[in-house]
Amino acid sequence: xxxxxxxxxxxxxxxxxxxxxxxxxxxxxxxxxxxxxxxxxxxxxxxxxxxxxxxxxxxxxxxxxxxxxxxxxxxxxxxxxxxxxxxxxxxxxxxxxxxxxxxx
Length: 104
Known about the structure:
With 104 residues, the chain is mainly β. 10% of the residues lie in helices and 33% in strands. A hairpin with a 4-residue loop joins strand 3 and strand 4 (70-74).
């Protein structure tokens, strides 16, 4: 299970989207969606920030955009109930079986 948190006052960090941080962390949805099962099993740290573009608990939908692309998460995996426009931060080590869908 992944955990997310909602933050306020977030600003974009410098650097190119899609590039790992200097510490090897996953910092974009682009990197997250492209993890192989082996990379996910290795426990690379994930620290992605974005904006909630859709949340619907009834349909189990949570879509987050990180200024490059949007990604679907199962809303049931998160305790919080965000609103569209909320700033969001995902910090976790993904499990090999974790799945998500991308929207560009």
